[in-house]
Amino acid sequence: MTATPAEFEARLRQIGAERYHDKHPFHHLLHSGGCTPDQVRAWVINRFYYQASIPMKDAAFMSRVEDPALRRAWRSRIEDHDGTDANEGGIARWLRLADAVGLDRDYVASKRGVLPATRFAVDAYVRFVRDKTLLEAVAASLTELFAPKIHAARIEGLLANYDFADDSSLSYFRNRLNEAPKDVAFGLAWVLDHADTAEKQDAAAAALVFKTDVLWSQLDALHAAYVTPARIPPGAWQPDTHLIAARSRAS
Questions:
Q1: Considering 12, 83, 103, 165, which has the largest number of Cβ atoms within 10 A of its Cβ?
Q2: Domain named Thiaminase-2/PQQC: which ranges (predicted)?
Q3: C-alpha dist (Å) from residue 119 to 35, 49, 214, 217
């Protein structure tokens, strides 16, 4: 039986309440000040791979959209991350965070030190958006429903517990407090309007579950590789390497 829009929205929000990655132990460790400098750096390196892939995901989505109105509405997501003449963009802000934690930003931008599981999870998300229905692709983006809460908690926790944290280094998260609600208001309304059968609602809900799994698996990989007992796979970033920025500041 097809749920009403209000009932279906409640179903989507329940997925976040149960499965969003704000409940992962790594985030609790990070926000409470329990991460070592190298664990923070590993998070910055691996999360960059996700951040840099978002505009690629959105470009893949837009390449399949025939409705100009939908393309216009979606275009700002790419600009928010890639930047414009008037907007630095989320990718550049994330690299500023890499500077602040003492990483060589060229190394971070190269993506060489990314964990295999991070790469597999993020690439799977890009493929999902490229290959699935437009409804499923938009529904997968609805983890943004839950993002402002985690960004606010992250800003508070990092400022309270880490010397690198200031308005400049945390500008990515502050900007997302304004950008994410705009994106999710459109995306949620679009999904509620287009998921007009029980089958489509099930597909949209499954897409959101998939996206929460993508986010959760990235933190599982970080926790396994860099939190005791650390098991860093071959090719992934090794602590005490690629810290040119930190050494430059110290000299």
A1: 103
A2: 10-220
A3: 22, 7, 10, 11
Give dist(CA 28, CA 169) in Å, integer. 20
pLDDT one-digit tens code per residue, 195-229: 999 999 999 999 999 999 999 999 999 999 999 88
User: Which residues, 6+ apart, have CB-to-CB distance to 14 below 8 Å?
Assistant: none
Fill in the amino acid letter for 79. Answer: E
- The correct CATH number of 10-244 out of 3.30.70.1150, 1.20.910.10, 1.10.10.10, 2.60.320.10 is 1.20.910.10
The pTM of the full predicted model, rounded to 2 decimals, is 0.93
Residue 246 confidence (pLDDT) above 60: no
Nearest to 37 by CA among 165, 173, 191, 203: 165
Does residue 145 surpass a pLDDT of 50?
Answer: yes
Residue 66 identity: E
